[in-house]
């Protein structure tokens, strides 16, 4: 997610790097995003919250390792596109990222 420091930080501390972080979003807000995104005519594309729900619903989710989760994240970050109204990615790309992460299990050991 691309962010920019507030104007006040740039004006008051131009030499300091701004400590970027993801916003804390409560579960009710995430559910609202999911509900609203389900109303969009996306035609094979999904929003990030929809992708997250796909990952959560996968039968292997509870067994994903930190490394596998990182691999999924890395693969999907490169595939997110942002139009004027928000970010989307192809639904099949989420399935592929999950499959690729889990395929690594067969190659281990």
What do you see in this structure?
Residues 1-21 are annotated as: Disordered. Residues 10-19 have a biased composition (Basic and acidic residues). It is a single chain. A 3-stranded antiparallel β-sheet has the order 1-3-2. It has 109 residues and is mainly alpha-helical. Helix 4 (66-77) runs antiparallel to helix 5. It is globular. The chain has helices at 7-12, 27-37, 48-57, 66-77, 91-107, and strands at 45-46, 81-83, 86-90. The N and C termini lie far apart (36 Å). Helix content is 51%, strand content 9%. It contains 5 helices and 3 strands.
Q: How are the strands of the biggest sheet laid out side by side?
A: 1-3-2
Number of helices: 5
Largest sheet: 3 strands, antiparallel
Radius of gyration: 17 Å
Considering DSSP H and I runs of 4 or more, what fraction of the residues is helical?
A: 40-55%
Global geometry: globular
Number of strands: 3
Mean pLDDT: 83
Task: Outline the secondary-structure elements.
Layout lengths: L6 H6 L14 H11 L7 E2 L1 H10 L8 H12 L3 E3 L2 E5 H17 L2
Antiparallel strand pairs: 1-3, 2-3
Key traits:
109 residues; three-stranded antiparallel sheet
Short structural description:
The protein is mainly α. Helices cover 51% and strands 9% of the residues.
